[in-house]
Amino acid sequence: GKPLSPSTYFLSSEPDYSSRLSQLVEACKQMHLAGIVHNDLRTPNLLLDQHSGMLVVGDFGYAHDVYESQS
Predict the structure, then answer these.
(1) Lower CB count within 10 Å: N or C terminus of the chain?
(2) What is the pTM of this model?
(3) What is the helix, strand, coil percentage profile of the chain, to 5?
(4) 3-state class of 29 per DSSP?
(5) Strand partners, 2
């Protein structure tokens, strides 16, 4: 996917913004259910799949597994 620039992300139409925000919330929910905390969510780490139009979270370099740290 291609990175979302701040202008692309924040100045998109309201339905588009609402859809992207919903996708981001769902992605965070799924990560947290799996015990993963991203720790670096920001626009350069949000990608847009060119084929599906879906938001994709990238760059898990600062992410950690909460279950692993509890051991």
Answers:
(1) C
(2) 0.72
(3) 45, 15, 40
(4) helix
(5) 48
